[in-house]
């Protein structure tokens, strides 16, 4: 699904922060065919996966990790490093959907104050994190990573818990995670149909909150 008339991400029409904002406001988001691909494809899944902020579930084992305070949690101090770490294929994958067009355009969004990271640091090393986009009272979670080889076991999950706490404290009403997966299911993920998502999105976009 392509919400724009052209194909942002091609050499003639590069993906920009403006394209991303327009797409998110229509419920769409981009993914590349591969790490080295040029251009992106647009998606608007139905049903849509969200994490309800008011019923978010933190498993007991993870809650103990959070309470142990093993990580130094920071916001927006290493955006490029986080998105590039997310762009590396997982150990069980051969490729990724984050290409250079996406990295550049989301970097523009970050400089505009609309894309953010939650980062986990251990011994002053970046060992996990997540990034996403904030518009109105909606946060669109894009990707997360952790580096177990440097003490980052559970780091991305801890970042997610901190993200939810932060969103609740600031008055956000929608945490969009796009597609369901077993990793997110443990936190209370639900799937809603496109019409219901569009209503929640519109309500969130018209609410003023600050990151």
Give a structural overview.
By secondary structure, the protein is an alpha+beta fold. The protein has one domain (46-205): 3-Layer(aba) Sandwich (Aminopeptidase), CATH 3.40.630. 33% of the residues lie in helices and 23% in strands. The strands form two sheets. Strands 4-5-6-7-8-3-9 form a seven-stranded mixed β-sheet, with helices on both faces. Strands 1-2 form a two-stranded antiparallel ribbon. Strand 6 (125-135) and strand 7 form a beta hairpin. The longest helix is centred in the C-terminal third of the chain and has 16 residues, at 155-170. It is globular, with a radius of gyration of 16 Å.
Instruction: Give the CATH architecture.
Output: 3-Layer(aba) Sandwich
> Which percent range fits the helix content?
25-40%
Low-confidence stretches: 1-6
Number of helices: 7
Say which CATH homologous superfamily is assigned: Leucyl/phenylalanyl-tRNA-protein transferase, C-terminal domain
Gap between N and C termini, in Å?
Answer: 29 Å
The domain tally reads 1
Q: Order of strands in the sheet with the most strands?
A: 4-5-6-7-8-3-9
Mean pLDDT: 93
Write down the oligomeric state.
single chain
How many strands, which pairing sense, and closed or not: the largest β-sheet?
7 strands, mixed
Please provide a brief summary of the model.
The chain is α+β, with helices and mostly antiparallel strands and 211 residues long.
Descriptive labels:
211 residues, alpha+beta, Aminopeptidase, 7-stranded mixed β-sheet, 9 strands, disordered N terminus
């Amino acid at each position: 699904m392509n919400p724009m008339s052209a194909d942002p991400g091609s050499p003639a029409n590069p993906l920009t922060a403006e394209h991303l904002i327009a797409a998110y406001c229509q419920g769409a988001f981009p993914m590349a065919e591969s790490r080295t691909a040029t251009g992106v494809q647009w998606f608007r899944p139905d049903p849509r996966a969200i994490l309800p902020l008011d019923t978010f579930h933190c498993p007991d084992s993870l809650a103990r990790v959070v309470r142990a305070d093993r990580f130094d949690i920071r916001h927006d101090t290493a955006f490029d490093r986080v998105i590039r770490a997310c762009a590396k294929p997982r150990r069980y994958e051969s490729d990724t959907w984050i290409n250079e067009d996406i990295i550049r355009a989301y970097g523009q969004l970050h400089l505009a104050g609309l894309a953010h990271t939650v980062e986990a640091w251990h011994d002053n090393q970046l060992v996990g994190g997540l990034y996403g986009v904030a518009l109105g009272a909606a946060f669109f979670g894009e990707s997360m990573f952790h580096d177990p080889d440097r003490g980052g076991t559970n780091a991305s999950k801890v970042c997610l818990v901190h993200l939810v706490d932060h969103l609740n404290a600031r008055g956000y009403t929608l945490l969009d995670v796009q597609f369901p997966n077993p990793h997110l299911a443990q936190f209370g993920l639900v799937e809603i149909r496109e019409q219901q998502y569009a209503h929640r999105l519109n309500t969130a976009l018209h609410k003023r909150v600050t990151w």
